[in-house]
Specification:
The chain is α/β, with parallel strands linked by helices and about 375 residues long. About 30% of the residues lie in helices and about 25% in strands. The protein has an 11-stranded mixed beta sheet, sandwiched between helices. A 4-stranded mixed beta sheet has the order 3-2-6-7. The protein binds adenosine-5'-triphosphate (ATP) and 1-O-phosphono-beta-D-fructofuranose (F1X). Adenosine-5'-triphosphate binds next to α9 and α10. Belongs to the carbohydrate kinase PfkB family.
Amino acid sequence: MSTPTAQQPGRPIGGRIVTVTPNPSLDRTIELAGELQRGAVQRATRSTAEPGGKGVNVSRVVVASGGDTVAVLPGDELDPVLVGLTTRGIPTAALPIGTALRSNVTVTEPTGTTTKLNEPGPSLAGRLDALADLVATTAGPTPTGPAARWVVFAGSLPPGLPDDALAVLVRAVRQRHGDEVRIAVDSSGVPFTALLQSGERIDLVKPNAEELAEVVGGDPEQYEQDPERAAAAAARLRERGVDTVLLTLGSAGAVLVDGTGSWTAAAPRITARSTVGAGDSALAGYLLAEVAGGPPERRLAQAVATGAAAAGLPGSDVPALDATDPDAIVVHRLGPPASPVGSPPAPTGATAPVDASVPVPHGA
Ligand SMILES: Nc1ncnc2c1ncn2[C@@H]1O[C@H](COP(=O)(O)OP(=O)(O)OP(=O)(O)O)[C@@H](O)[C@H]1O
Ligand SMILES: O=P(O)(O)OC[C@@]1(O)O[C@H](CO)[C@@H](O)[C@@H]1O
Protein backbone atom coordinates (compact mmCIF):
# COMPACT_ATOMS: atom_id res chain seq x y z
CA MET A 1 0.00 0.00 0.00
CA SER A 2 1.38 3.40 -0.86
CA THR A 3 1.09 5.81 2.01
CA PRO A 4 -1.80 8.26 1.79
CA THR A 5 -0.11 11.62 1.96
CA ALA A 6 -1.38 14.80 3.49
CA GLN A 7 -2.84 17.58 1.36
CA GLN A 8 -1.15 18.29 -1.95
CA PRO A 9 0.39 21.69 -2.57
CA GLY A 10 -2.05 24.24 -3.94
CA ARG A 11 -5.03 26.13 -2.64
CA PRO A 12 -6.48 24.46 0.45
CA ILE A 13 -10.15 23.47 0.26
CA GLY A 14 -11.68 22.27 3.52
CA GLY A 15 -12.60 18.60 3.77
CA ARG A 16 -10.92 15.48 2.43
CA ILE A 17 -12.60 13.59 -0.40
CA VAL A 18 -11.67 9.89 -0.34
CA THR A 19 -12.54 8.09 -3.57
CA VAL A 20 -12.96 4.34 -3.96
CA THR A 21 -12.54 2.77 -7.42
CA PRO A 22 -13.05 -0.99 -7.10
CA ASN A 23 -12.23 -1.51 -10.81
CA PRO A 24 -9.65 1.08 -11.94
CA SER A 25 -8.23 1.15 -15.44
CA LEU A 26 -5.48 2.42 -17.64
CA ASP A 27 -7.53 4.56 -20.03
CA ARG A 28 -6.07 4.34 -23.52
CA THR A 29 -7.44 6.93 -25.94
CA ILE A 30 -6.91 6.40 -29.67
CA GLU A 31 -7.64 9.32 -31.98
CA LEU A 32 -8.65 8.58 -35.57
CA ALA A 33 -8.44 11.06 -38.45
CA GLY A 34 -11.67 9.68 -39.94
CA GLU A 35 -14.68 7.58 -39.00
CA LEU A 36 -14.28 4.31 -37.11
CA GLN A 37 -14.79 1.42 -39.52
CA ARG A 38 -15.69 -1.98 -38.13
CA GLY A 39 -13.54 -4.81 -39.53
CA ALA A 40 -10.89 -2.46 -41.03
CA VAL A 41 -7.27 -1.78 -40.05
CA GLN A 42 -7.01 1.90 -39.17
CA ARG A 43 -4.03 4.00 -38.09
CA ALA A 44 -4.29 6.25 -35.07
CA THR A 45 -3.12 9.85 -35.37
CA ARG A 46 -2.45 10.06 -31.64
CA SER A 47 -2.79 7.88 -28.55
CA THR A 48 -2.56 8.54 -24.83
CA ALA A 49 -2.71 6.49 -21.63
CA GLU A 50 -4.04 7.94 -18.37
CA PRO A 51 -4.87 6.35 -15.02
CA GLY A 52 -8.64 6.13 -14.87
CA GLY A 53 -11.79 4.69 -13.39
CA LYS A 54 -14.57 6.85 -12.05
CA GLY A 55 -13.30 7.44 -8.50
CA VAL A 56 -9.75 7.97 -9.78
CA ASN A 57 -11.07 10.68 -12.11
CA VAL A 58 -12.82 12.43 -9.21
CA SER A 59 -9.50 12.44 -7.32
CA ARG A 60 -7.70 13.80 -10.39
CA VAL A 61 -10.08 16.80 -10.51
CA VAL A 62 -9.69 17.37 -6.77
CA VAL A 63 -5.88 17.36 -6.96
CA ALA A 64 -5.88 19.59 -10.06
CA SER A 65 -8.06 22.02 -8.09
CA GLY A 66 -5.82 22.11 -5.01
CA GLY A 67 -8.13 19.97 -2.89
CA ASP A 68 -7.46 17.13 -0.47
CA THR A 69 -8.08 13.59 -1.66
CA VAL A 70 -6.90 9.99 -1.44
CA ALA A 71 -7.78 7.48 -4.15
CA VAL A 72 -8.41 3.98 -2.76
CA LEU A 73 -8.01 1.25 -5.35
CA PRO A 74 -6.78 -2.29 -5.88
CA GLY A 75 -3.46 -2.57 -7.69
CA ASP A 76 0.25 -3.25 -7.23
CA GLU A 77 2.83 -0.56 -6.69
CA LEU A 78 4.39 -1.02 -10.14
CA ASP A 79 1.10 -1.29 -12.03
CA PRO A 80 0.96 1.46 -14.72
CA VAL A 81 -2.20 2.86 -13.08
CA LEU A 82 -0.48 3.29 -9.71
CA VAL A 83 2.72 4.58 -11.31
CA GLY A 84 0.65 7.09 -13.34
CA LEU A 85 -1.15 8.29 -10.23
CA THR A 86 2.06 8.71 -8.26
CA THR A 87 3.69 10.56 -11.17
CA ARG A 88 0.72 12.93 -11.30
CA GLY A 89 0.81 13.59 -7.56
CA ILE A 90 -2.45 11.80 -6.75
CA PRO A 91 -2.30 10.35 -3.21
CA THR A 92 -3.32 6.67 -3.19
CA ALA A 93 -4.10 3.87 -0.77
CA ALA A 94 -3.74 0.68 -2.78
CA LEU A 95 -4.66 -2.94 -2.05
CA PRO A 96 -2.02 -5.21 -3.64
CA ILE A 97 -3.62 -7.90 -5.82
CA GLY A 98 -0.65 -9.55 -7.55
CA THR A 99 -2.09 -9.11 -11.04
CA ALA A 100 -2.41 -6.36 -13.63
CA LEU A 101 -5.33 -3.92 -13.64
CA ARG A 102 -7.42 -3.56 -16.81
CA SER A 103 -7.01 -1.30 -19.83
CA ASN A 104 -10.06 0.49 -21.22
CA VAL A 105 -9.92 1.80 -24.76
CA THR A 106 -11.63 4.92 -26.10
CA VAL A 107 -11.67 5.56 -29.84
CA THR A 108 -12.40 9.16 -30.79
CA GLU A 109 -13.45 10.42 -34.23
CA PRO A 110 -13.20 14.00 -35.55
CA THR A 111 -17.00 14.28 -35.34
CA GLY A 112 -16.76 14.01 -31.56
CA THR A 113 -18.18 10.49 -31.50
CA THR A 114 -16.44 8.35 -28.90
CA THR A 115 -16.52 4.55 -28.69
CA LYS A 116 -15.52 2.95 -25.43
CA LEU A 117 -14.39 -0.66 -24.86
CA ASN A 118 -14.05 -1.56 -21.18
CA GLU A 119 -12.36 -4.76 -19.99
CA PRO A 120 -13.90 -6.72 -17.09
CA GLY A 121 -10.85 -6.21 -14.85
CA PRO A 122 -8.96 -8.61 -12.57
CA SER A 123 -10.83 -10.68 -10.00
CA LEU A 124 -11.07 -9.41 -6.44
CA ALA A 125 -12.48 -12.71 -5.16
CA GLY A 126 -11.86 -13.03 -1.44
CA ARG A 127 -10.55 -9.46 -1.09
CA LEU A 128 -13.74 -7.57 -0.18
CA ASP A 129 -13.08 -7.48 3.57
CA ALA A 130 -9.51 -6.25 3.01
CA LEU A 131 -10.78 -3.53 0.67
CA ALA A 132 -13.51 -2.52 3.16
CA ASP A 133 -10.91 -2.25 5.93
CA LEU A 134 -8.61 -0.15 3.74
CA VAL A 135 -11.48 2.20 2.81
CA ALA A 136 -12.63 2.61 6.44
CA THR A 137 -9.05 3.22 7.61
CA THR A 138 -8.31 5.73 4.85
CA ALA A 139 -11.52 7.61 5.66
CA GLY A 140 -10.47 7.97 9.31
CA PRO A 141 -8.71 10.86 11.04
CA THR A 142 -5.08 11.51 10.07
CA PRO A 143 -2.30 12.63 12.46
CA THR A 144 -2.95 16.18 11.26
CA GLY A 145 -6.66 16.30 10.56
CA PRO A 146 -10.17 14.94 11.03
CA ALA A 147 -11.91 12.08 9.23
CA ALA A 148 -12.75 12.50 5.55
CA ARG A 149 -15.77 14.65 4.74
CA TRP A 150 -16.76 12.43 1.79
CA VAL A 151 -16.15 8.87 0.70
CA VAL A 152 -17.08 8.41 -2.97
CA PHE A 153 -17.74 4.91 -4.34
CA ALA A 154 -17.65 5.05 -8.12
CA GLY A 155 -17.63 2.76 -11.13
CA SER A 156 -18.23 -0.90 -11.86
CA LEU A 157 -17.42 -3.84 -9.63
CA PRO A 158 -14.67 -6.18 -10.88
CA PRO A 159 -15.26 -9.93 -11.20
CA GLY A 160 -15.18 -11.89 -7.96
CA LEU A 161 -17.02 -9.35 -5.79
CA PRO A 162 -20.59 -10.14 -4.69
CA ASP A 163 -23.49 -8.03 -5.95
CA ASP A 164 -23.87 -6.47 -2.50
CA ALA A 165 -20.21 -5.38 -2.33
CA LEU A 166 -21.12 -1.67 -2.27
CA ALA A 167 -23.38 -2.24 0.74
CA VAL A 168 -20.52 -4.06 2.52
CA LEU A 169 -18.11 -1.19 1.77
CA VAL A 170 -20.57 1.52 2.83
CA ARG A 171 -21.40 -0.40 6.02
CA ALA A 172 -17.68 -0.60 6.90
CA VAL A 173 -17.40 3.19 6.69
CA ARG A 174 -20.62 3.76 8.67
CA GLN A 175 -19.61 1.27 11.39
CA ARG A 176 -16.22 2.96 11.85
CA HIS A 177 -17.23 6.62 11.39
CA GLY A 178 -21.02 6.88 11.77
CA ASP A 179 -22.51 9.95 10.10
CA GLU A 180 -19.28 11.97 10.41
CA VAL A 181 -18.32 10.83 6.92
CA ARG A 182 -20.70 11.50 4.02
CA ILE A 183 -21.19 8.77 1.42
CA ALA A 184 -21.50 9.46 -2.32
CA VAL A 185 -22.16 6.77 -4.93
CA ASP A 186 -21.89 6.69 -8.72
CA SER A 187 -22.92 3.17 -9.69
CA SER A 188 -25.37 1.35 -11.92
CA GLY A 189 -27.05 -1.97 -12.59
CA VAL A 190 -27.30 -4.76 -10.03
CA PRO A 191 -24.66 -3.38 -7.60
CA PHE A 192 -26.53 -0.05 -7.39
CA THR A 193 -29.92 -1.73 -6.97
CA ALA A 194 -28.48 -4.04 -4.29
CA LEU A 195 -27.07 -1.04 -2.43
CA LEU A 196 -30.43 0.74 -2.50
CA GLN A 197 -32.09 -2.45 -1.22
CA SER A 198 -29.59 -2.77 1.63
CA GLY A 199 -31.15 0.11 3.55
CA GLU A 200 -27.74 1.81 4.04
CA ARG A 201 -28.16 5.58 4.20
CA ILE A 202 -26.53 7.34 1.25
CA ASP A 203 -25.87 11.09 1.27
CA LEU A 204 -25.48 11.58 -2.49
CA VAL A 205 -25.97 9.59 -5.69
CA LYS A 206 -24.99 10.72 -9.19
CA PRO A 207 -26.94 8.77 -11.79
CA ASN A 208 -27.28 9.75 -15.42
CA ALA A 209 -30.68 9.50 -17.13
CA GLU A 210 -30.26 5.83 -18.06
CA GLU A 211 -29.08 4.82 -14.60
CA LEU A 212 -32.03 6.64 -13.02
CA ALA A 213 -34.46 4.90 -15.38
CA GLU A 214 -32.93 1.52 -14.47
CA VAL A 215 -33.95 2.10 -10.86
CA VAL A 216 -37.21 4.08 -10.97
CA GLY A 217 -38.38 3.35 -14.53
CA GLY A 218 -39.39 5.94 -17.12
CA ASP A 219 -37.79 7.07 -20.36
CA PRO A 220 -34.21 8.45 -20.20
CA GLU A 221 -34.80 10.61 -23.29
CA GLN A 222 -37.78 12.27 -21.62
CA TYR A 223 -35.66 12.98 -18.54
CA GLU A 224 -33.13 14.75 -20.76
CA GLN A 225 -35.88 16.84 -22.37
CA ASP A 226 -38.01 17.59 -19.32
CA PRO A 227 -36.24 18.67 -16.10
CA GLU A 228 -39.53 18.69 -14.13
CA ARG A 229 -40.14 15.07 -14.98
CA ALA A 230 -36.48 14.24 -14.29
CA ALA A 231 -36.64 15.90 -10.86
CA ALA A 232 -39.83 14.04 -9.94
CA ALA A 233 -38.17 10.75 -10.93
CA ALA A 234 -34.94 11.63 -9.08
CA ALA A 235 -36.98 12.49 -5.96
CA ARG A 236 -38.17 8.89 -5.89
CA LEU A 237 -34.64 7.86 -4.91
CA ARG A 238 -35.24 9.78 -1.68
CA GLU A 239 -37.79 7.09 -0.81
CA ARG A 240 -34.90 4.61 -0.97
CA GLY A 241 -32.60 6.11 1.68
CA VAL A 242 -30.81 8.65 -0.55
CA ASP A 243 -30.55 12.23 0.74
CA THR A 244 -29.41 14.09 -2.40
CA VAL A 245 -29.58 13.21 -6.09
CA LEU A 246 -27.31 14.87 -8.66
CA LEU A 247 -28.82 13.68 -11.94
CA THR A 248 -26.54 14.47 -14.89
CA LEU A 249 -28.16 14.73 -18.30
CA GLY A 250 -25.21 15.01 -20.70
CA SER A 251 -25.46 18.02 -23.02
CA ALA A 252 -28.81 18.86 -21.38
CA GLY A 253 -27.11 19.74 -18.08
CA ALA A 254 -28.17 18.40 -14.69
CA VAL A 255 -30.88 18.34 -12.02
CA LEU A 256 -30.30 18.47 -8.26
CA VAL A 257 -32.83 17.20 -5.71
CA ASP A 258 -32.34 17.33 -1.93
CA GLY A 259 -34.42 17.74 1.20
CA THR A 260 -34.74 21.49 0.68
CA GLY A 261 -35.77 21.65 -2.98
CA SER A 262 -34.92 20.83 -6.56
CA TRP A 263 -33.06 22.79 -9.24
CA THR A 264 -32.04 22.43 -12.84
CA ALA A 265 -29.25 23.95 -14.91
CA ALA A 266 -28.66 23.67 -18.65
CA ALA A 267 -25.15 22.84 -19.86
CA PRO A 268 -23.25 25.51 -21.79
CA ARG A 269 -22.89 24.96 -25.52
CA ILE A 270 -19.42 23.59 -26.13
CA THR A 271 -17.60 21.66 -28.79
CA ALA A 272 -17.39 18.24 -27.18
CA ARG A 273 -14.07 16.51 -27.78
CA SER A 274 -14.46 13.53 -25.43
CA THR A 275 -17.18 13.07 -22.84
CA VAL A 276 -15.17 10.38 -21.02
CA GLY A 277 -14.91 11.52 -17.41
CA ALA A 278 -17.54 14.28 -17.77
CA GLY A 279 -19.79 12.63 -15.19
CA ASP A 280 -16.89 12.10 -12.79
CA SER A 281 -15.82 15.72 -13.22
CA ALA A 282 -19.39 16.90 -12.56
CA LEU A 283 -19.41 14.89 -9.34
CA ALA A 284 -16.02 16.30 -8.33
CA GLY A 285 -17.24 19.84 -9.03
CA TYR A 286 -20.32 19.27 -6.85
CA LEU A 287 -18.23 17.86 -3.98
CA LEU A 288 -15.60 20.61 -4.14
CA ALA A 289 -18.34 23.26 -3.98
CA GLU A 290 -19.89 21.39 -1.05
CA VAL A 291 -16.68 21.17 0.98
CA ALA A 292 -16.14 24.87 0.28
CA GLY A 293 -19.54 25.58 1.87
CA GLY A 294 -21.49 26.41 -1.29
CA PRO A 295 -25.32 26.22 -1.24
CA PRO A 296 -27.17 23.73 -3.50
CA GLU A 297 -27.44 26.21 -6.40
CA ARG A 298 -23.69 26.78 -6.39
CA ARG A 299 -22.96 23.06 -6.15
CA LEU A 300 -25.17 22.37 -9.16
CA ALA A 301 -23.64 25.21 -11.16
CA GLN A 302 -20.14 23.98 -10.36
CA ALA A 303 -21.10 20.39 -11.29
CA VAL A 304 -22.47 21.44 -14.68
CA ALA A 305 -19.54 23.75 -15.39
CA THR A 306 -16.95 21.11 -14.47
CA GLY A 307 -18.69 18.39 -16.51
CA ALA A 308 -18.85 20.69 -19.55
CA ALA A 309 -15.18 21.63 -19.16
CA ALA A 310 -14.27 17.92 -19.10
CA ALA A 311 -16.37 17.21 -22.21
CA GLY A 312 -14.40 19.90 -24.04
CA LEU A 313 -11.06 18.23 -23.25
CA PRO A 314 -9.50 15.38 -25.26
CA GLY A 315 -9.41 11.75 -24.10
CA SER A 316 -10.01 11.27 -20.42
CA ASP A 317 -8.42 14.60 -19.48
CA VAL A 318 -10.14 16.33 -16.55
CA PRO A 319 -10.25 20.04 -15.70
CA ALA A 320 -9.16 22.02 -12.67
CA LEU A 321 -11.92 24.17 -11.17
CA ASP A 322 -9.90 27.23 -12.21
CA ALA A 323 -10.64 26.28 -15.82
CA THR A 324 -14.42 26.21 -15.30
CA ASP A 325 -17.01 28.98 -15.36
CA PRO A 326 -19.78 28.25 -12.84
CA ASP A 327 -20.92 31.90 -12.88
CA ALA A 328 -22.05 31.42 -16.48
CA ILE A 329 -24.44 28.60 -15.47
CA VAL A 330 -28.05 29.68 -14.88
CA VAL A 331 -29.80 27.64 -12.18
CA HIS A 332 -33.62 27.44 -12.03
CA ARG A 333 -35.49 26.36 -8.94
CA LEU A 334 -38.01 23.70 -9.84
CA GLY A 335 -40.38 23.61 -6.96
CA PRO A 336 -41.11 23.18 -3.27
CA PRO A 337 -38.77 21.26 -0.98
CA ALA A 338 -38.56 17.59 -1.85
CA SER A 339 -40.02 15.16 0.67
CA PRO A 340 -37.93 13.93 3.61
CA VAL A 341 -35.88 10.76 3.16
CA GLY A 342 -38.25 7.79 3.34
CA SER A 343 -41.40 9.74 2.38
CA PRO A 344 -43.15 10.05 -0.99
CA PRO A 345 -41.76 12.95 -3.04
CA ALA A 346 -43.41 16.37 -3.09
CA PRO A 347 -44.64 17.39 -6.55
CA THR A 348 -42.38 19.77 -8.44
CA GLY A 349 -43.72 23.16 -9.52
CA ALA A 350 -43.01 26.03 -11.89
CA THR A 351 -39.42 27.00 -12.61
CA ALA A 352 -37.91 30.24 -11.39
CA PRO A 353 -34.33 31.41 -11.98
CA VAL A 354 -32.20 31.72 -8.87
CA ASP A 355 -28.89 33.36 -8.17
CA ALA A 356 -26.20 30.66 -8.16
CA SER A 357 -23.40 33.16 -8.02
CA VAL A 358 -22.87 32.85 -4.28
CA PRO A 359 -19.08 33.05 -4.00
CA VAL A 360 -17.36 29.76 -3.26
CA PRO A 361 -13.96 30.22 -1.67
CA HIS A 362 -10.71 28.93 -3.15
CA GLY A 363 -12.00 28.43 -6.66
CA ALA A 364 -14.48 25.66 -5.79
N1 LIG B 1 -21.95 17.51 -24.93
C1 LIG B 1 -21.89 18.19 -23.77
N2 LIG B 1 -21.99 19.54 -23.77
C2 LIG B 1 -21.93 20.25 -22.61
N3 LIG B 1 -21.81 19.67 -21.41
C3 LIG B 1 -21.73 18.33 -21.34
C4 LIG B 1 -21.76 17.52 -22.51
N4 LIG B 1 -21.67 16.22 -22.12
C5 LIG B 1 -21.56 16.23 -20.77
N5 LIG B 1 -21.61 17.49 -20.29
C6 LIG B 1 -21.53 17.94 -18.89
O1 LIG B 1 -21.04 16.86 -18.11
C7 LIG B 1 -22.01 16.47 -17.13
C8 LIG B 1 -21.99 14.96 -17.00
O2 LIG B 1 -22.28 14.37 -18.25
P1 LIG B 1 -23.08 12.99 -18.37
O3 LIG B 1 -24.46 13.15 -17.86
O4 LIG B 1 -22.91 12.56 -19.80
O5 LIG B 1 -22.28 12.06 -17.36
P2 LIG B 1 -22.15 10.48 -17.34
O6 LIG B 1 -23.19 9.84 -18.17
O7 LIG B 1 -22.01 10.09 -15.92
O8 LIG B 1 -20.73 10.38 -18.09
P3 LIG B 1 -19.49 9.40 -17.91
O9 LIG B 1 -19.99 8.13 -17.29
O10 LIG B 1 -18.98 9.23 -19.32
O11 LIG B 1 -18.50 10.13 -17.07
C9 LIG B 1 -23.34 17.05 -17.61
O12 LIG B 1 -24.18 17.30 -16.51
C10 LIG B 1 -22.89 18.32 -18.32
O13 LIG B 1 -22.67 19.33 -17.37
O1 LIG C 1 -16.28 0.20 -16.36
P1 LIG C 1 -16.70 1.29 -15.39
O2 LIG C 1 -16.05 1.13 -14.06
O3 LIG C 1 -18.18 1.50 -15.33
O4 LIG C 1 -16.17 2.67 -16.02
C1 LIG C 1 -14.80 2.87 -16.19
C2 LIG C 1 -14.59 4.11 -17.03
O5 LIG C 1 -15.18 3.98 -18.31
O6 LIG C 1 -15.18 5.22 -16.36
C3 LIG C 1 -14.36 6.37 -16.47
C4 LIG C 1 -15.14 7.48 -17.12
O7 LIG C 1 -16.27 7.80 -16.36
C5 LIG C 1 -13.13 5.95 -17.25
O8 LIG C 1 -11.99 6.53 -16.69
C6 LIG C 1 -13.11 4.45 -17.15
O9 LIG C 1 -12.47 3.82 -18.26
